[in-house]
Amino acid sequence: MKGKKTVFDLLNPRGLGESFEIATKGISYLFLHHRNMRFIFLIGIAAILLGFYFKLHGIELIALSITITLVFVAEILNTAIELMLDAVTKEYNYKIKLIKDIAAGVVVITCVNALLIGYVLFIHRFLK
Fold this sequence. Notes:
By secondary structure, this protein is an all-alpha fold. The protein has helices spanning 7-11, 16-33, 35-53, 58-88, 94-127. It has a single domain, classed as Helix Hairpins (Orthogonal Bundle).
């Protein structure tokens, strides 16, 4: 049935490889042009290495990985929202500022959560 299009083909005209390439370009842009993303990446790598050094249990490593991923996702979405709104207008707009502030607040919340999770996972190990 070569040549016939399936419903999936109609919904997603790109191939998996092309979709992956597009996503990789977006992530590369973040690392090259956004200092916060590089900082989050380094802190995440350090946390994972500490997790292995202190021999965290499986569920603890899972909690750590999910926490790191949430911070990444929050920063990625914050950056996407900021870029989108900057494309709409460069003029000051109170609602746009508020939306950006709220998106930044999501990053702060995930970072505070990450600090708390890190504290719970590591403090007693550091004190030994």
